[in-house]
Amino acid sequence: MTHRNRILAALPPEELAVLEPVLERVDLVTRRVLCDSGKPIPAVCFPEDAVISSLSVMADGSAIETATIGNEGMTGLALFHGVDQTPEQSFVQVPGVGHLIAAEAFRDVLPRCPTLRAQLHLFSQALYSLVAQSSGCNRKHGVDQRCARWLLLVHDRVGRDRIELTQLFLSQMLGVRRATVTVAAGVLQKAGAIRYSRGRITVVDRALLEAASCECYAVIRSTFDRLMTGRSTPSPLAALRLSEDGMTLVGDGAPLSRSVR
C-alpha cells in the first residue's frame, strides 16, 4: 500500500509490515473528534488528505485553534510521549482519509519500529515550531496575512485546490469574528488568490496567496521540509543576526535595526 502520509511513507517495509495489521483506514468526516479534552486518547491517526485542528478550550466552552496536523504528521502525539490525555481537543477540520491505530496497539508496536520513533521525534519538534510561530503570528500580523498563511498550510496538506471549509470555521480557527474573516477572504478573492462559495474555498493562484501571507508560512514550511523530508527550503530568518557574543539581539521584542540585520 502506498501512503500519502509522510511518516508512514518514510517507514521501511519491515516496519510497515508490523503496522499494517493494526492500521485501520477510515473516512474522516468534518467535526469528528479524534482526541477529547481530559479524556483518554483512544487512538493515533495518520491523516492522508484530511486536516485536523487542535483546540485550546476555555472554561466558558469557547475554543481557539493552536495547531493543525495533516499528512506530515500524526494526531494523539501525547501517546508517543507516554501521556494518555491532554486538555486540548483535536477534531477533523477538513474531511479526508486517515489511518487509525488504537492506543494499546500503538504502544505495543512502537518498540519494534525505530524509524517510526525517529520520525515522531522529528515531527514533535516541527509541531512545536508550528505552534510557536503561529502564536507569534497571531499577535503580530493582520487577519489577511494570517488567513493566507492558514490556507497555504491547509493547501499543502490536502493536495487539492478545493477545500471544504466554512467562513464560520475559519473565523473560529483564527480567533476572530466571522465578519472579519469575510472581509479578509474578500480581499484575497479580489486579489485573485482564492475563490469563495458557500462552504468551499478554492485556491486559484498559489503564488498570489503566498505573496499575501506573512513570513510565518515560509518559516513553518522550511522547518517541516528540513525535519520531515530533509529538503533545504530557504527561511526568511536565515539572513538575520539574532545574537552577538552569546547575547540576544531580539529579546526585547523590537524590530532589528538595519545596522544589525
Automatic annotation (TrEMBL):
Highest taxon of the lineage: Bacteria
Keywords, in A-Z order: DNA-binding, Transcription, Transcription regulation
Any GO molecular function: DNA-binding transcription factor activity
Residue ranges occupied by any HTH crp-type domain in the UniProt entry: 145-211
InterPro entries: cNMP-bd_dom_sf (IPR018490), Env_Response_Regulators (IPR050397), HTH_CRP (IPR012318), RmlC-like_jellyroll (IPR014710), WH_DNA-bd_sf (IPR036390)
A single GO cellular-component term on record: cytosol
Protein's UniProt keywords contain Glycoprotein: no
Entry-linked PANTHER family: CRP FAMILY TRANSCRIPTIONAL REGULATORY PROTEIN, HTH-TYPE TRANSCRIPTIONAL REGULATOR ARCR
Protein name per its UniProtKB record: CRP/FNR family transcriptional regulator
